Amino acid sequence: MIIELPLPDTSIMARRDQIVTALVAIAGREAVISDDDGRRAFETDAMTSYRRMPLAVVLPTSTEGVANVVRYCNANGFKVVARGAGTSLCGGALPGEDTIVVGVSRMSRVLDVDYANRSIRVQTGITNLAITAAVSSDGFFYAPDPSSQLACTLAGNLAMNSGGAHCLKYGVTTNNVLGLRVVLMTGEIVDIGGDYVDAAGYDLLSLMVGSEGQLGIITEATVRILKSAEGARPMLLGFDTNEAAAQCVAGIIASGIIPVAMEFMDRPAIEVCEAFAKAGYPLDVEALLIIEVEGSEAEIGERLSQIREIAKPFRPSTMTISQDAAQSARIWKGRKSAFGALGRIADYYCMDGTIPLSRLPETLTAISRICTGYGLRVANIFHAGDGNLHPLIMFDANDPASEERAERAGMDILTLCVEVGGCLTGEHGVGIEKRDLMHVQFTAVDLAQQMRIKSVFDPGWLLNPAKVFPLDVRDGFEPSATAISAIRRAAA
Amino acid sequence: MPDIYKPRDETELATTVAGLAARKVATEIQGAGSKRGIGRPCEAGAIIETSALTGLTLYEPTELVMSARAGTPLVEIEGTLAERGQMLAFEPTDLGPVSGGPGGAQTIGGVFATGASGPRRITGGSARDHILGVRAVNGRGEAFKSGGRVLKNVTGYDVGRSLVGSWGTLAVLTEVTFKVMPLAERTETLIWPGLTEELAVEAMCAALGTPFEVSGTVHLSAALTPRLELKSVAREAAPVTAIRIENFASAIDYRSKRIAEALKIYGQPQVLDNDASLKFWSEIRRLSVFARVPTETQQVGSAKQVWRISTSPSKAAAVMSAIRRNTEAEACLDASGGVIWLEVPASADAGAADIRRILSGYGGHATLISAGRDVRQAVEVFHPMSEVVERLSTGLKDAFDPERILNPGRMYATL
After folding, report:
1. Which of chain B's residues have a Cβ under 8 Å away from the Cβ of A450?
2. Which helix (H) or strand (E) holds B266?
3. Exposed e or buried b for every residue in A302-333, given b needs 16+ CB within 10 A?
4. Is the pTM of this model over 0.80?
């Protein structure tokens, strides 16, 4: 474990009983989790190698409930970590031992469905998939679809600006949000945007979405819903080289076709997924593309024929068009179960860089070299249309040295992504995982501009501390303990 | 007379801004100046023009990405994209002519700084949805970047996107990187004449509730239709409701037929073919029916004022009928009514108090797009903010521009 976590404030930890009593008085006994077993469920997220037992957990059932807890924490200078389902892969929901977790998981109601305006208003503790489930019987869906969509909450999706496999056509979370209700660290409740296409004044929505829970706690949101296409069908294209697969993707985009999904898997990923899901993937190829198009039967047929013609010069060794719904389901099951399938054979560390598509072949070669250098194996899954790469670095969790090598390989890979013109994270977020790599992508001035924004919304830097910004650039931005006491006195 | 600066690169711009900040000189930021007539009048001691910051710096058609220096004219960008069969999917609206400025002049920096977005925003997203990265100089004279050149990027706060629509009050954009999309092979438009606003909104919302990827929905009130340059529609002399579909040529007939079926209770539509469609939507993009410069075919004087209202589409008809209780009003309901371009007879406050009182009951906001300097001095051009949003916004202003030299007061007196 190579990421530094700040030492907790022991004076706050010493007052735990008193703080829990106060939280119970504010939020009610049933909303506060203070016993060890209960708290343990909140000590980590999907980046499970880092764990810290939180001081207490509060699960309010209303926006006002969140506001009351946060106002109390602000007045006393207590740090707060907002939490959805805790599925963050970058430690975005990792608490500290002097930190109070405020979870929105008991706020999961659909508040209003508006088909005429194609929007839905929900509490943010709703899971991503439940949004679609609320409207699917009427033929609508919510577009962003992170792999964890069965479990992850909209709150977390908003915090991380989550993507998914269908972003090329439908955009990411920020492109699908119309309005937010936010609890600021002061306990004030503010509405940003609404049920109309753009908010007045500065685009505060764009700052809230993707701010990793550091600017406020989002408790309600109005998001777009879309009418589902008449139909969709995937095809499989297998290639002998990564270059050929990448060129084929470029050729499809150049032709003017925007497939709803273009997923790329390298040989190790294909083998693992096929063994698990029996999806019908070819095992004699270096690279596999799953390309899905939407429309009427006739349109789908025509578009897939076009794609076949575009692919031919790149000599695909396999071109399989799904023949029926069952085959389509198998093809997607293979891809969507990749993480679970890999988990059966090894522990793995899932990375999330983005690169320009044109640099794919050399990047994959370099990733392979980096992992080999650390004595590790890697499988690659890639949202090819938008350049979002997910190398899965395999290691042995029972061997701390192996785990540390995986972390170091991951950091080298993300640095490489920036060097080839991409970025550290495409959809998972910075959290603690990439915090110390922010220097690689940003200058001190770039980071200072972001940190000044942090201070506007949360002057005491109490929300989701120790994330996003490297610890060594915070001087002059994150207030010292003395300054926090002064803020606390002013608030009181 | 204000001093005029035309920095040749980002470093020179940064030095210039730092010098102006040290002297606390209120500075107007200008691209082509086509939208100078919008916003609160700003008494500037200096003008920074981006006219020397031009040129494409990246174009990868197969990655759907382009970068350009901020002063690059939009026409140049759209020309280069069209050569490769691509476009800006948010089809930037041209607010020049409606606000008394030149048409076709705006720069790409101006497009993003003002968030200028056309009819395709209803499904394709607006300017803020297409920005991928920026380079900019803040009011301290520091050059910074945000985002990048890849389509998916959540590294750090989304600062670049937050600059879209900030009207040069936070930072001077020097380079923007944005997503581009393929041009459709064919465009077709279905036109229903004679629908009331209420029925038109219902029809447009219904069209967007089909799976046929409608990419534009607009309704013009009766007095506006004859002002169209496109004669085949102008001669309707009635309100018209237009629904656009864009796709591969082979998909158009089917989709057009299915939409007409789904909307058959509104009558049989006329069909505009590809060429006529492109002309029609180009007029919507440049708001030709509100252009203040009279031509042979148009007699639209400056005795009118134009607002842009953002509300929920299905409330648009009710908003319009409430507005009409006190004044004459013509409207172009874009985005199914979600964006109302409203023309009212000129008055000292442009009807601001009334319009905003009505909107407070429905939700949404109103921006004064076209009015004389004295009117823009007297009323809030941009919609008043709630107390908390105002505190956050002034905080952001200070975070970028602590001396408050960049377009001070252009959006709000306090910013």
Report:
1. 146, 156-157, 159
2. none
3. bbbebbeebbeebebebebbbeeeebbebbbb
4. yes
Q: Would you call A115 and B209 a contact, using CB atoms and an 8 Å cutoff?
A: yes
Q: Which two tokens stand for residue B26?
A: 């209120």
Within 8 A of B389 by CB-CB distance, chain A residues are: 190, 192, 201, 204
Nearest to A376 by CA among A352, A396, A362, A361: A396
Cα–Cα dist B185/B274, whole Å? 9
Contacts of B210 in chain A (CB under 8 A): 227
Using the beta-carbon criterion (under 8 Å), do A450 and B156 form an inter-chain contact? yes
Give the three-state DSSP class for B309.
strand
Contact A162, A142 (CB under 8 A): no
Q: How far is CA B387 from CA A66, A214, B244, B415, in A?
A: 20, 21, 40, 14
B154–A171 CB contact, under 8 Å: no
Nearest to A427 among B154, B211, B312 (CB): B154
Q: What is the pLDDT of residue A70?
A: 98
DSSP label of A39: H
**For testing the chain B interface, which of A178, A226, A381, A449 should be mutated: the one with the most B CBs within 10 Å?**
A449
Which residue, B370, B407, B311, B327, is CA-closest to B101?
B370
Q: What is the CA radius of gyration of chain A?
A: 23
d(CA B293, CA A264): 53
Task: Tell if the CB–CB gap between B156 and A443 is shorter than 8 Å.
Answer: no
Q: Distance of alpha carbon A229 from its chain centroid, rounded? A: 25
Identify the three-state secondary structure at position B269: coil
Closest CA to A175 of A209, A151, A149: A209
Cβ distance of A197 and B338 shorter than 8 Å: yes
Structure tokens, B103: 């048409």
Count of C-beta atoms within a 10 Å radius of residue B55: 11
Q: Which residues in chain B land under pLDDT 70?
A: 293-302
> Which residue bears the tokens 């690659």?
A380
| Cβ <8 Å between B396 and A211 | no
pLDDT at B308: 98
Exposure letters A102-138 (e unless 16+ CB within 10 A, then b): bbbbbbbeeeebbbbbbbbbbbbbbbbbbbbebbeee
Q: How far apart are CA B138 and CA A449, in angstroms?
A: 9
User: Token pair for residue A131?
Assistant: 């949004």
- To the nearest 10 degrees (0 to 180), the angle between helices A481-491 and A63-76 is 120
In terms of Cα–Cα distance, which of A151, A300, A121, A318 is closest to A225? A121
Work out the pLDDT band at A198, boundaries 50, 70, 90.
confident
B131-167 burial: b if 16+ Cβ within 10 Å, else e: bbbbbbbbbbbbbbbbbbbbbbbbbbbbbbbbbbbbb
In this prediction, residue A319 carries a pLDDT of: 96
Determine the residue among A203, A212, A248 to mutate to test chain B binding: the one whose Cβ has the most chain B Cβ atoms within 10 Å: A203
Q: Where are the beta strands (DSSP E) in A258-342?
A: 261-266, 287-294, 318-321
Q: Which residue reads 């300017």 in tokens?
A: B127
Chain B residue with CA closest to A198: the answer is: B310
Mean pLDDT of A328-352: 90
The answer to whether the beta carbons of residues B118 and B93 sit under 8 Å apart is yes
User: Shortest CA distance to B113 belongs to which of B323, B407, B414?
Assistant: B407
Residue B129, min C-alpha distance to chain A (Å): 6
Q: Report the distance separating Cα A338 and Cα A273, nearest Å.
A: 5
Do residues A322 and A335 touch, judged by C-beta distance below 8 A? Answer: no
Query: How confident is the model over A104-113, as a mean pLDDT?
Result: 98
Residue A492 predicted with pLDDT over 70: no
Decide: helix, strand or coil at residue A391: strand
Q: What is the DSSP secondary structure assignment for residue A28, as one 8-state letter?
A: -
* A254-289 pLDDT per residue, tens: 999 999 999 999 999 999 999 999 999 999 999 999
